[in-house]
Amino acid sequence: MTTSAPARELLDAPPPPSRPRSRRKRPRLPYLLIAPALIALLVGMGYPLGWQVLNSFREYGLAQQFGEAPAWVGLDNYISLLTDGAFWSVLIKSVAFMAVTALATMVIGIGLAVLMKSIPSWSRITLQIAMLVAWAMPIVAQMTVWNWLIDDRNGVLNYLLSFLPGVDLVGHNWLVDPWSFFAVASIIITWASVPFVALSVYAGLTQVSDEVVEAAQLDGAGGFQMLRRVTLPILRPILVILLLLQLIWDLRVYAQIELLQGFGAAGDKYDLLGTYIYGLGIGQGHFGVAAAAAMIVLFFTIALSWFYVRELIKEDQS
Prior knowledge:
Protein name: Sugar ABC transporter permease
CATH class: Mainly Alpha
Region (Disordered): 1-24
Structural class: mainly alpha
Subcellular location: Cell membrane
CATH superfamily: MetI-like
Strand content: under 5%
Low-confidence stretches: none
Transmembrane segments: 29-49, 86-115, 127-149, 179-205, 226-249, 287-309
Distance between the termini: 55 Å
Largest sheet: 2 strands, antiparallel
Number of helices: 15
Keywords: Cell membrane, Membrane, Transmembrane, Transmembrane helix, Transport
CATH topology: MetI-like fold
Strand order of the largest sheet: 1-2
Shape: flat
């Protein structure tokens, strides 16, 4: 079969030049949907943060509260803090308190989550309800209950411990010695934080594939090996964000320490960063120095968060 001359010319002609692809337009709807939230966040947090940054470079004390113009002092507030031994003492205590409390919360929370995965449903539901009640309890109510437990005159803890042979703790005040003060504070905060960790980890455990568990059991993995080599690596993203949140919350703790100081002895020996900054600003009227201390805590918190943010960026790019 032969082709005609016009058809042959069409077949031999070079293809028409391809048009450059137009860049795909991104939909605008997601940006429009998140715009109100971003605007509210900028308005609600932008002004207080800007005011805090500005005051950290000014001498803003009681005189400025009565109309005197604040004086610009540059980095003097930061230098005053960083050369003050009391600030470093509070910072070291706060970091140690944060590390111990967050670690205890994570270990106990993971243990309770594993326990809930293996116990019958009726006992699991009972435990979950109890933890939800403890977690939902307001801080003031929590501290009132704990004050009744550790009270030096009528406390249940001293009464029960006195039944041990050779132990007489009736009238013992747990809040006078700084070591026992922070131990009590750590126990209270751990008790209040464990339900959030336990329920979050348990929710992650329910999503672990049964096929993965069966394969590990066929390979001879025992209970502890299953947890360490299979379950925890799968739950790593959840555990990282939970640990990060606990570190941030325990670094910025304020209400529990303030209320415990009201129940027992008060003073610089019993301060963490939250109460220390409050004392600088509200107690002593050094609002500029307090603002500088708050900014240092903010930088420290960002440094703690950067590890998780970097992991999120890597996961998004991969």
